[in-house]
Structure formats: structure tokens, C-alpha cells
Amino acid sequence: MTSTPSPAQAQTAKRTVVMGAGPGGLCAAYVLTRAGASAVVVEKAPFVGGLARTIRRTTAVGEFKFDIGGHRWFTKNDELNDLFREVVADELLWVDRVSRIYFDGRYVDYPLKISNALTAIGPVTAARAMADYLRTRVQHQLRPQPIASMEDAYIDQFGPTLYQLFFQRYSEKVWGLPCSEMSGDWVSQRSKGMSLVTAVKDAIIPSRGKVVSLIDNFMYPRNGFGRLSERMADGIGAGGNAVRLNAGVVRVHRQGRCVTAITVNTADGPERIEGDEFVSSIPLTYLAEIMDPPAPPEVVAAATALTFRNIITVNLMLRRRQVTPDTWLYVHDRNILFGRLHEPKNWSPAMVPGDDYTSIVAEYFCSFGDAIWSMTDEALVERTVRHLVKDLRFIAPEEVLGGFAVRAPRAYPSYVLGYEAPLATVKAFISAFDNLQIIGRYGTFRYNNTDHSIETGLLAAKNILGESHDLDRVNSEQEYHEVKRVPRVAASNA
Predict the structure, then answer these.
(1) What are phi and psi of 99, to 5 degrees?
(2) FRET label pair with 453: which of 28, 260, 442, 460, CA 20 to 30 Å apart?
């Protein structure tokens, strides 16, 4: 592992308590363990990995493996790539990525390749898309308007026509609200520096420096992305520290500017765990609500105002060699309830029992109490099969060997308009503690990729070991996540 403090630097007398055994929390404990420091990870679930775990289902034909929604590894950070390779080791695969958007019976490459997108929508619509984008840019120059909503941000970057065709339907399916009610922050996080004009310019005029795509292929563990978390947990245990499952945090005890202990629920009842340093990857809202003594009323009210979006994955086992060539397929059709699907076999052949079999993971985005969340698992499986058979015409009913649903509450932080003020209130309260760091997607209420969550865990561990890093800078760079610009080097005469 590069840049990891040596054991001599570790303050081994300190004990770190990590709340949550997702990739970020496990990374923090893994780095501390490698440095010879004491750490314990507590996790409410009976498994590690959180949303990035791998589920195994044994059938009469063999074992099928499913990731929840699919998680690929890509990052611009070489240190994180080294960490990933170290942990995954002999299970490492390189996977070619093929991702497409399905809309109105047609397929378009995703992320958008402008030539492909304009060809798919036809010359008349393509001309309108270019014209209304240019008109939008001129209007913004003459009468600048703030970019507040998701709708504002997408139109600013791509124009009204491409927004309506490629972004509006899917975004509203994901978030369950009109794009005009969602903050533009989500768009800037996911597509920084990306726009219609920059895409066209990069296609015509060579950029300063080589543009390296991080989306054409990616690293992946042979037996599912959950192996990253499982192997980190193994390393923590082998180093003399512990990962305690079925131990959910119910109280965070504080005194002055310090956290002193947590209480977890176990099979034997409540248990108090004391520590010197604390790292939290549990939902930030929940963390604020379980403080003892309680957080100020305005902090609790702010935490209540922040919301998450749930997902349900329906996992189908199929007697079929392949359904699509895609690693992901984004489904914009409003008549199809799920928003995205992936085929695990396209990521790794080890995800299915053999060549004659494949599987599908369909993702449903929902909120507590809505129509989708209220459906039974059986109804969700039936609906998914119907969409694949009748609407998409991907499979035949007799090819289905079985299926099941997995519910993942609070999967995505919702950037609803106005979320910034309550989030700032909660973070200001949490940041006042000298020995408490928040990490990961849940813990920071930031829509992180897996590499960002792991980076926050890595930096939190380094801070405990004596370094000084600002965790809030992670996932704040003003550049599109999925490309990396490498300066051009003049040719040598040697």
C-alpha cells in the first residue's frame, strides 16, 4: 500500500471505533490495522460491504452471484488503484465496459457520445438540439441566471432537447421528483466539465494533453465486487483487530468536544464500546439523531429534513447464454418501472454456474411508502419478468429459473432543492468533535462513487495516524469523473 504510515508512526495506544462495515469504514480499519493500530468495526447487518456487497444464491444448477446494482472500480487516484490491487490481488479482472441508454425503442451509448446521440435522434431533432443549445448559451450570456435546479444544470450543459430526451425521464425515475425540484449539485458532481460544446470540441480539436477514458474498461473482482469488502475484513481480522457484525449503533455518547463511547445492540443486549478515535460511515442523519446527550433541537430538525432514496434490486437467474452485451443498460421508458439493469456474467463469468446460464439485476428506485416500495417481492419479480419478456423482448418466460428481491433503504442521498442549509447545520455540529470523522456516501451525505468512499476512509485513517487531510475535499474536483487528462510529453530525440 503506498503512502501508508509505517507502524512506527502509529499511535498504537489509541483505539479507533469505526461505525459501519461498508467499503469506506473497512478501508479505514484496514489501513489502521496495517499500521499496527488498534481498531474495531461495528456493523448492524450480518454481512460486510453495505450497498457494495455480493449476494450468493445456490440453485440446483449451481451458484449465482449478484452485486446490488453493480459496482465497478475506476479512479484517477493512483494510490487508490494500488490499494484496490493489493486487496483484490489474484481475483483482479479487467472488464470492457459497454453501457447504453434505452429510449423509445432505440439505443444510445452512455455516457453520451455526441455523434452517436445525434444520429439516433435523426437529423431534424439533432439540428434542433444544436440550435436550442446555442440559443440557451446566448441567452445565458445576455441575461445570466443562477443554476439552481437539476433541470437548470442539464439544460445549461446540453440544451433543452437533449435534456428532455436523455436526462429528464431517467432522472425523474431515479429521484421520484421533477428535475425542477432537485438541486443542480448532483449534475455538477456527476458531469463536471462535460457539455455539448466541450464534447464537440474534443471530437474536432485535439485537447491540450491526452484524454484518458476511465470508462472503456475497469477493474473488478472475479467473484463479485463484495470481495473487496470481504478481503479487507479478512485483513483486519488477520492483523488482530475485529469486525463485529449484528452490532448496530444505537447511541453515540459525547462529552464536551469529544465522543467517548458508543452503544451497540447485540444478540446479548446493549453493549458499550469505548474508544479514543471514532469514524462514522452510518447515515449522517441517523448519527445526529442518536447523540447522547441529544443534539440541539435545530440539529435534529435539520437531520430530519434530509432524505435518502431507496433501491430494490430484482435478481433473476436464467437458463440462457446472454441477454445483452451491456455492463449497464439505462432504461428511460416510463412504462418500464425499473431504471437500470446489468448482467453480472458480462462483468465476470464466475458470477454464474456455467456458459449456459446468465442472470439479470434490475434496479428499482423508490421511497418508503410509495407504490414500488409497497409491492411484495413476488410482485416485483413478476413485474420484472413481464418487462423483460413483453416490453424489452429480451427473454422467454421458460428461461427464468427463479428470482428474488433485495431492498436497500437509504441508498442515495437526495439533493432536493434547499438541502444545503440543513446539511450545513448537521455538519457544523458534527465537525465540532475533535475525535469524530465522517466518511463514505452515507456518512457525509454526498453522492460518492466507491473510490471516493474508500478515499475518505483512507484519509481518516491517515489523520488518526498523525497526518492532516481535509476529507471534505474528496469528490470536489471540478473535472468530469470519467476522464483523466494526462499532459502531452514532447517527443524525445534520443
Answers:
(1) -125, 135
(2) 260
CA distances from 175 to 171, 345, 372, 398, 411 (A): 6, 28, 13, 34, 11
Distance CA 402, CA 379 (A): 13
Do 312 and 408 share a domain, yes or no?
yes
Question: What pLDDT shows up at residue 342?
Answer: 96
Residues 325, 362, 333, 416, CA torsion sign:
negative
Question: Nearest 5°: CA angle at 318, between 315 and 322?
Answer: 105
How far is residue 249 from each of residues 287, 289, 304, measured CA to CA in Å?
A: 9, 11, 18
User: All 3 cell numbers of residue 422?
Assistant: 440543513
Q: How many domains does the chain have?
A: 3
Residue in this structure with the C-alpha cell 439523531, named with its chain if needed: 289
Residue 198's pLDDT is 55
Position 217 in a domain: no
Q: Are residues 234 and 200 in the same domain?
A: no
Same domain, 120 and 199: yes
| 138 and 83, same domain (yes or no) | no
Structure confidence at residue 137 as a pLDDT band (50, 70, 90): confident
Distance of CA 160 to the CA centre of its chain: 27
The full DSSP string for 392-459 is S----GGGEEEEEEEEEEEEEE--BTTTHHHHHHHHHHHHT-TTEEE-HHHHHTS---HHHHHHHHHH
The better pLDDT of the pair 242, 206 is held by 242
Q: Which amino acid is at 377?
A: D
Closest to 470 measured CA to CA, from 421, 431, 414, 425: 431
Considering the domain architecture, whether residues 364 and 399 belong to the same structural domain is answered as yes
Domain membership flag for residue 73:
yes
Lowest mean pLDDT among 181-195, 208-222, 273-287, 448-462: 208-222
Cβ proximity of 80 and 228 under 8 Å: no
147's CB contacts (< 8 A; 6+ apart) are: 153, 156, 184
Mean pLDDT, range 294-309, rounded to an integer: 97
* CATH number of the structural domain spanning residue 78: 3.90.660.10
Asked if residue 104 belongs to a domain, the reply is: no
Residues 311 and 393 in one domain: yes
375 and 429 both lie in a single domain: no
Q: Where does 74-229 show beta strands of DSSP type E? A: 92-96, 99-103, 106-109, 210-213, 217-221
**Element housing 59 (H / E):** strand 54-59
A 10 A CB-CB count for 268 gives 6
CA separation for the pair 446, 18 (Å, rounded): 19
The range of the structural domain enclosing residue 454 comes to 7-50+222-305+416-473
Q: What is the DSSP string of 293-330?
A: SPPPHHHHHHHHH--EEEEEEEEEEESSS-S-S-SEEE
Of 359 and 137, the structure prediction assigns the larger pLDDT to 359
What distances in angstroms separate CA 493 from CA 487, 490, one per listed residue?
19, 9
